[in-house]
Design a protein that fits this description.
It is found in: Cytoplasm. There is one protein chain. The protein is of the alpha/beta class. The chain has eight helices and six strands. It has a single domain, classed as 3-Layer(aba) Sandwich (Uracil-DNA Glycosylase, subunit E). Helix content is about 35%, strand content about 10%. The strands form two sheets. It has a four-stranded parallel sheet with strand order 3-2-5-6. It has a two-stranded antiparallel sheet with strand order 1-4. The radius of gyration is 17 Å and the shape is globular. The two termini are about 30 Å apart. The relative contact order is 0.17. The mean pLDDT is about 95.
């Protein structure tokens, strides 16, 4: 499977044991059966591993963890919190933009397309990589979590320091094993409108992230998004 999917070469060999494991075969069977039953699955298959296709393992500088893809038509494209050009930014992303503006003075973009971040080494990883249309969390517990744990472990094993931005209890629990003696782990509430005012807004994670990277001799992230 890992030879014919859209996945950057740097991830293929390290993740091969996962692709060859029984749980991935079961996950594949589940997804095939769901499609055969006429269910719409987002994002499309070519974009399931988009985060790791745009951000090579040896280029990861920041990890942002999401939960599962957006479940509305035309939204999900394989990067957590991101939507395709022309799709209005969802509420959580609007709050991320509010924090960016407050923290770094970056004007809020008129779109929600985050590939510019991914191309700079920001791994925009969802814990679960697929979802059924209009059914949030429909594919949780089917095997994706084990796969994305393996992805996080590979990043954690890197020699170069990485910044983990963990927003909300789910992300914080998932990455609880990250080595904080080597990497910077920043925690805040989830940017959802339900929780953003409990510590996400005002967290200044974007400036703290860049300050850490620069302190390690690494280039900062350009968080300003170009027009699309």
């Amino acid at each position: 499977m890992s030879d014919n999917i859209a996945l950057h070469e740097s991830w293929k060999a390290p993740l091969r044991p996962e692709f060859e494991a029984d749980y991935m075969a079961q996950l594949r069977s589940f997804l095939v059966a769901e499609k055969a039953a006429g269910k719409r699955i987002f994002p499309k298959g070519a974009e399931w591993f988009r985060a790791m296709d745009l951000t090579p393992l040896d280029k990861v500088r920041v990890v942002i963890l999401g939960q599962d893809p957006y479940h509305g038509p035309g939204q999900a494209h394989g990067l957590c919190f991101s939507v395709k050009p022309g799709v209005p930014p969802p509420p959580s992303l609007v709050n991320i933009y509010k924090e960016l503006q407050s923290d770094l003075g970056i004007e809020r973009p008129r779109h929600g397309f985050l590939e510019h971040w991914a191309q700079q080494g920001v791994l925009l990883l969802n814990s679960v990589l697929t979802v059924e249309m209009a059914k949030a969390a429909a594919h949780q517990g089917k095997g994706w979590e084990r796969f994305t744990d393996a992805v996080i472990r590979l990043v954690n094993a890197r020699e170069e320091p990485v910044v983990f931005l963990l927003w909300g209890a789910y992300a914080q629990k998932k990455a609880a094993f990250v080595d904080t003696t080597k990497h910077l782990v920043l925690k805040a509430a989830h940017p959802s409108p339900l929780s953003a005012h409990n510590g996400f807004l005002g967290c200044r994670h974007f400036s703290k992230c860049n300050a850490f990277l620069e302190s390690k001799g690494l280039p900062p992230i350009d968080w300003a998004l170009p027009e699309v």
